[in-house]
């Protein structure tokens, strides 16, 4: 339709990178694009930690579930929700609200998506790393995050050394609702999508598996999901009320 939409629709997660660095002017443009994202109430509650020390990268590989591309990527950025900066400006600021946690997570995600799209427009690629939330205390200590700053996710960026197949998304009819939420799930359409995902996993060039989307969701939602997270958030001054 146009180059911007074509770029968005071509998204693939890149997990293999060449050794070529990202030029400083490219990184500056990527970060400027990130900062240009919308910000709720203009609070600007996101900080980005650019991790360049090899030892820190190696440690983050371990903390994020042994994902080697955290160390191999040309750049690794950690997006954080940050109210520490605000409390330096307003020492008696009223923080700790669940809504403020939502704002921090949403603003951070908007900034990161801008960053990745900017990178892709420059011929680069990347992948988000939610695995840093496996060990949020250790990640916070490693990155020197003060109270009221929490790591949300990481972003690997670099020159792609792979061209993976594109993973099919849910049919629009299962995602977009007209006027009111349609509570009756179209199971025939879901079954068609499950077959599509099964065929995708069987045919892709790496990490083949025998799995539908429904079975994948059943496995993920059938187990605990970082049950320590609430305690961590509260220990950092988030989600207290």
Automatic annotation (TrEMBL):
Keywords assigned by UniProt, alphabetized: Flavoprotein, FMN, NADP, Oxidoreductase
Residue ranges constituting the Nitroreductase domain according to the UniProt record: 8-159
Database matches in Gene3D superfamilies: NADH Oxidase
Coiled coil ranges: none
Pfam families: Nitroreductase
InterPro entries referenced in this protein's UniProt entry, alphabetically: Flavin_OxRdtase_Frp, Nitroreductase, Nitroreductase-like
Annotated family: Belongs to the flavin oxidoreductase frp family.
NCBIfam families the UniProt entry points to: PRK10765.1 (NF008033)
Protein name (Swiss-Prot/TrEMBL): Oxygen-insensitive NADPH nitroreductase
Originating organism: Aeromonas enteropelogenes (Aeromonas trota)
